[in-house]
């Protein structure tokens, strides 16, 4: 009788945990799943904390309810699998704003990550160069081509639409610049439409029509108990052995599978596994790949990341607009690039004591020097800038928290998905029981990370299938 499979998952973020749940559900009974997490905490960028006696997210705040095709997103399906569907809540205030010329203006409707499908609707924020978006008799994008979002939008609709709409939208999600980020990776629906449509406005409308949203259907959701409840439930339901404070330092191929070197150099632990799933950022993944797949490691290690800081303040009875928050174009010259009014946006977080939780995001790709400020200076700068934007002095915070996420957000340059596909093809050919998953390869957002982990788990099951008892 053959022994059970042994699968090692390196990385205890939501990607690795989603992979562990999928393995538990689909792999043969008795499969031994071990999750190795270098830090002492599971969840990666999902981290629910406490401020002034109430819960608050110190990392990712919410998830998309639907997938790009209009179906239920992967994380919603996982939430249901884990028995947490009853905890899903939605924003009670959905209107956000853009800071334009020092004033807040509502984010216009009819856009796709800031790219307009109706030029009239964005006129109050940006003046499109409408004459440039003419039908040239050919699709905007060749069948296998990619381009930066900024290059395409700038060419078709002008600089102002990029600076005031697209750049702050992408900056809020990726902490990057539109001129550097891949269209195919960051806006796949628009890229698909651009391979058919001859105008950018037409491509936006086609992309929106391809994934219609029912009127009134919520776009975003979160969990009433905080997103860390998702992490805890996934770890529990996976039945995996979870090793915290367990750094995997080396990975070696053996005649029967893999050997992991875990722990400190002076006292290493050697672990055997039949398959390994790397669910860590690109650079630590590249270090582990350097031995068994050096060419793959070189490509993976070339992915760059942006660092950000999230400053959360508890403010006593501040005067806040009825907005979920606002985005800040880089041209406004502020340190903050986005702000969320948590206790306005999320009804379940509103407090009877009048305290408001406000969070601001700091840090854009290439501008990491702004993050060298001390926590006190960051808080003071954010407080001052928020007061300026809102046009009224905010009360002093009664509590505050600074969460620094170093190297947190991948920067996908044009051609990214092609490079990832080549990397995975090389691994399947040479090392089919070694898989990559996570935001560094497939995109940001909780649903994408969940789907990435589940897909990698399925690949490992397929690769091991011939040896199952």
- Given as residue ranges, the uncertain stretches (5+ residues, pLDDT < 50) are none
Shape: globular
Rounded to the nearest angstrom, the radius of gyration is 23 Å
Q: Biggest sheet: strands, sense, closure?
A: 7 strands, mixed
Secondary-structure map:
Blueprint: E1 6-10, H1 14-26, E2 32-36, E3 48-51, E4 54-57, E5 63-64, H2 74-81, E6 88-89, E7 96-100, E8 103-106, E9 111-112, E10 115-116, H3 149-157, H4 159-174, H5 183-186, H6 188-194, H7 200-210, E11 220-223, H8 228-238, E12 241-243, E13 248-254, E14 257-262, E15 269-273, E16 275-278, H9 282-289, H10 294-300, E17 304-316, E18 325-327, E19 336-341, H11 342-345, E20 355-362, H12 375-390, E21 399-411, H13 416-430, E22 434-436, H14 439-442, H15 446-464
Parallel strand pairs: 1-2, 1-16, 2-12, 7-18, 16-22
Antiparallel strand pairs: 3-4, 5-11, 6-11, 7-8, 9-10, 13-14, 14-15, 17-20, 17-21, 18-19, 19-20
Helix pairs in contact: 1-8, 1-15, 2-15, 3-4, 6-7, 9-10
Report on this model:
The protein is an alpha+beta fold and 469 residues long. 32% of the residues lie in helices and 23% in strands. The chain contains 15 helices and 22 strands. The strands form six sheets. A seven-stranded mixed sheet has the order 8-7-18-19-20-17-21. The protein has a five-stranded parallel sheet with strand order 12-2-1-16-22. Helix 3 (149-157) packs antiparallel against helix 4, helix 6 (188-194) crosses helix 7 and helix 9 runs antiparallel to helix 10. The chain is globular, with a radius of gyration of 23 Å. The model has no long low-confidence stretch (mean pLDDT 95).
């Amino acid at each position: 009788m053959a022994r059970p499979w042994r699968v090692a998952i390196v990385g205890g973020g939501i990607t690795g945990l989603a992979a562990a749940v999928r393995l538990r559900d689909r792999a043969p009974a008795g499969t031994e799943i071990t999750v190795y997490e270098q830090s002492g905490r599971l969840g990666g960028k999902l981290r629910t904390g406490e401020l002034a006696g109430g819960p608050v997210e110190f990392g990712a705040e919410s998830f998309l309810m639907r997938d790009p095709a209009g179906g239920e997103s992967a994380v919603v399906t996982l939430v249901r699998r884990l028995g947490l569907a009853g905890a899903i809540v939605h924003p009670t205030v959905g209107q956000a704003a853009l800071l334009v010329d020092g004033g807040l203006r509502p984010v216009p409707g009819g856009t796709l990550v800031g790219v307009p499908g109706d030029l009239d609707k964005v006129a109050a924020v940006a003046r499109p160069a409408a004459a440039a978006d003419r039908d040239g008799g050919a699709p905007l994008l060749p069948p296998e081509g990619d381009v930066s979002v900024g290059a395409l939008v700038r060419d078709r609709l002008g600089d102002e639409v990029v600076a005031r709409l697209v750049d702050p939208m992408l900056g809020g999600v990726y902490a990057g610049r539109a001129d550097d980020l891949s269209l195919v990776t960051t806006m796949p629906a628009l890229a698909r439409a651009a391979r058919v449509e001859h105008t950018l406005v037409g491509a936006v409308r086609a992309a929106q029509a391809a994934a219609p949203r029912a009127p009134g259907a919520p776009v975003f959701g979160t969990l009433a108990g905080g997103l860390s409840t998702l992490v805890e439930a996934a770890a529990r339901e996976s039945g995996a052995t979870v090793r915290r404070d367990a750094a995997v330092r080396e990975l070696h191929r053996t005649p029967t599978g893999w050997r992991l070197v875990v722990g400190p150099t002076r006292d290493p632990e050697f672990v055997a596994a039949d398959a390994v799933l790397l669910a860590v950022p690109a650079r630590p993944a590249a270090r582990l790949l350097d031995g068994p797949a050096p060419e793959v490691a070189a490509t993976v290690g070339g992915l760059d990341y942006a660092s950000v800081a999230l400053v959360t303040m508890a403010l006593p009875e501040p005067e806040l607009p009825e907005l979920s928050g606002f985005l800040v174009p880089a041209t406004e010259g502020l340190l903050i690039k986005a702000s969320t009014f948590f206790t306005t946006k999320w009804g379940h977080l509103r407090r009877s004591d009048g305290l408001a939780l406000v969070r601001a995001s700091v840090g854009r790709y290439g501008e990491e020097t702004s993050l060298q400020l001390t926590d006190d200076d960051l808080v003071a700068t954010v407080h001052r800038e928020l007061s300026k934007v809102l046009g009224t002095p905010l009360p002093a915070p009664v509590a505050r928290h600074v969460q620094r996420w170093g190297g947190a957000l991948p920067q996908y340059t044009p051609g990214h998905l092609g490079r990832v596909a080549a990397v995975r093809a090389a691994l399947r050919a040479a090392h089919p029981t070694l898989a990559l998953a996570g935001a560094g390869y497939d995109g940001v957002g909780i649903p994408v990370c969940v789907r990435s982990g589940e897909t990698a788990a399925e690949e490992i099951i397929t690769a091991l299938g011939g040896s199952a008892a």
